[in-house]
Design brief:
Length: 114
């Protein structure tokens, strides 16, 4: 249930961010939910591999490089989704990754805290 709620929250976040930034485009709510689902699957399957491959630089940067990995998964989501979910540049993906990390952190501490 918590996983599904996270997907819906990310979908709403995608819609909100696409309204504010010109370099980030989501076609409709269905595309936002589907892209959130794809991102979730990539975070389960691909992200751990990327973390292992970049472990030395992640340790050296005290974990800040994880934002770059999050941006990479967003770019992969963009490539898999086609024209319904577009991110213009890696810089925009990095910026969206930062915003998503902050929003998810706030939600983890307020809504999901038991």
């Amino acid at each position: 249930m918590r996983w599904l709620l996270g997907i819906l929250i990310n979908a709403v976040l995608f819609i909100a961010l696409s309204g504010y930034f010109h370099g980030f485009y989501v076609e409709n709510i269905g595309a936002a939910v589907m892209s959130s689902l794809v991102l979730s699957i990539l975070n389960i399957l691909v992200r751990p591999i990327l973390i292992l491959l970049t472990l030395p630089i992640t340790i050296l940067t005290l974990g800040i490089f994880l934002l770059v990995i999050n941006a990479m998964t967003l770019v992969l989501t963009d490539e898999l989704m086609g024209a319904s979910f577009e991110i213009d540049s890696f810089g925009m993906a990095f910026f969206v990754a930062i915003i998503m990390a902050v929003v998810n952190l706030i939600l983890q501490e307020t809504v999901f805290r038991k």
